[in-house]
From TrEMBL:
GO terms for molecular function: acyltransferase activity, transferring groups other than amino-acyl groups. Transmembrane segments: none annotated. Gene3D superfamilies: 3.40.630.30. It comes from Pedobacter caeni. This is FR47-like protein. Residues 111-238 form the N-acetyltransferase domain.
């Protein structure tokens, strides 16, 4: 009976990841939330992400007071009915992965990993927008902890945390400058970031394009498992 109860509790917790933005803004990241009981968003200078209460009538209309004209934002997972005042620009097919336990716990000591701080933000923004533009703002590092690797003083690889729920933290901003790929740097950074999460009592999850088999294989080697297919929606407020 206890085993069944524990399994049910785990599934109840994991179900929060079906609406990760909404549940982050109603829990660990509530202090960042703009909006009301039906729709919330992160401030635009922190993260262009929005979340909705799918059980309410017109939550997207509810968010208009916190949107700029023609502003582009992102939502993860199922969407409510889209009113005429919004436009769905794009929808990416992603997979959500979750790490119940790391299969690797030892870092390569020959690779120096540093904790990225406030003075590193401009360089972090420059690196990630050169590789993965659109999902990272200059103040996104306020959401969590970030690690990086420097070569000759230049930041060439990084990883960190984005959505924060009470029991889960999203792994994000995993990127390496094209001149330094293929050296296992991202693997070490992801491992370090996940080890830090487990040490703080939270479990990692992430989102990756279904087509990015190279990244999926890397995450599976570390202990991540595929949880569900999930849409990454690009929306425009008209």
């Amino acid at each position: 009976m206890n085993t069944i109860t524990n399994e049910n509790q785990v599934q109840d917790q994991l179900s929060l990841l079906d609406r990760p933005i909404w549940n982050a803004l109603n829990s660990k990241h509530a202090s960042f939330a703009l909006g009301n009981e039906y729709a919330k968003r992160y401030p635009s200078h922190i993260l262009p992400f929005v979340g909705f209460d799918l059980d309410s009538g017109q939550p997207m209309e509810q968010l208009k007071a916190w949107m700029k004209p023609d502003e582009i934002v992102y939502a993860i997972g199922d969407l409510p009915k889209i009113p005429d005042s919004w436009q769905l620009l794009n929808q990416l097919d992603c997979v959500q992965m979750f790490c119940p336990e790391l299969s690797v716990t030892t870092l390569d000591e020959s690779i120096e990993i540093i904790t990225l701080k406030e003075e590193d933000r401009a360089e972090m923004f420059e690196l990630i927008t050169s590789v993965q533009p659109g999902y990272f703002a200059k103040d996104t590092p306020l959401l969590g902890h970030y690690n990086g690797i420097r070569v000759d003083g230049k930041l060439i690889s990084m990883s960190g945390e984005r959505l924060g729920l009470d029991s889960f933290t999203e792994l994000s901003a995993v990127c390496t400058h094209p001149d330094f790929t293929g050296k296992g740097l991202a693997y070490q950074l992801v491992l370090k970031t996940c080890l830090d999460m487990f040490e703080r009592g939270t479990k990692p999850f992430l989102h990756v394009l279904n087509s990015n088999t190279r990244a999926i294989n890397l995450y599976e080697r570390l202990g991540f498992v595929k949880r569900k297919d999930i849409a990454f929606n690009q929306l425009k407020s008209l």
